[in-house]
């Protein structure tokens, strides 16, 4: 088994990273997301610099993380297979603006963060954010992503 095959057995939740700058409202699917501090409460997301979402986070200094529930595979694909540069991915998806950042109406929970740090990590950047607001939207099982498949 090669290194990538081994790493592909890691198990991830599936999240939508939301960002807004001016009139541009966008989101992207992300699996590389985790809490990274208890006090203050912080999360880390690994985002490739070519993502439109990365650009919007750089410009606005804020982002959101909405956790998908099981059954939301189509949403994961919608936000993860096309760039917001080419399509308004939120055009027929319900969302609210919290601290001027989009969060999904239908998800398990969300947090809205203010960017704290940015670390180059190979072909991605790890962006850390302090949680400004958070909400548990509903109870349920999360969508799981592993080895290019959803569970
Ligand atoms: C299940 C899944 C997980 C993903 N995880 C990440 C991730 O953690 N980081 C990342 O930079 N891209 C990730 N992507 C790819 C982006 O979602 C994808 O490139 C997206 O089209 C970027 O959109 P944007 O250009 O509108 O920001 C993932 C895609 C899928 C389908």
Can you lay out the helices and strands and say which pair or pack?
Layout: H1 3-7, E1 12-13, E2 15-21, E3 24-30, E4 33-37, E5 42-47, H2 52-60, E6 62-67, H3 73-80, E7 95-98, E8 101-104, E9 109-121, E10 124-136, E11 144-146, E12 149-150
Antiparallel strand pairs: 1-11, 2-3, 2-6, 4-5, 5-10, 6-9, 7-8, 9-10, 11-12
The structure holds flavin mononucleotide.
Structural features:
3-stranded antiparallel beta sheet; 151 residues; mainly beta; binds flavin mononucleotide; 7-stranded antiparallel beta sheet; 12 strands; 15% helix; globular; Pnp Oxidase, Chain A
CATH topology: Pnp Oxidase, Chain A
Q: Report the structural category.
A: mainly beta
* CA gyration radius, whole angstroms: 15 Å
Unique ligands: flavin mononucleotide
Tally of individual helices: 3
The largest pleated sheet is described as: 7 strands, antiparallel
User: Termini, distance in Å?
Assistant: 22 Å
Task: Report the oligomer.
Answer: single chain
CATH homologous superfamily - what is it? Electron Transport, Fmn-binding Protein, Chain A
CATH class: Mainly Beta
How many extended strands? 12
Shape: globular
Low-confidence stretches: none
The number of domains? 1
Sheet with the most strands: spatial strand order: 3-2-6-9-10-5-4
- Report the mean per-residue pLDDT as an integer: 97
Strand content: over 45%
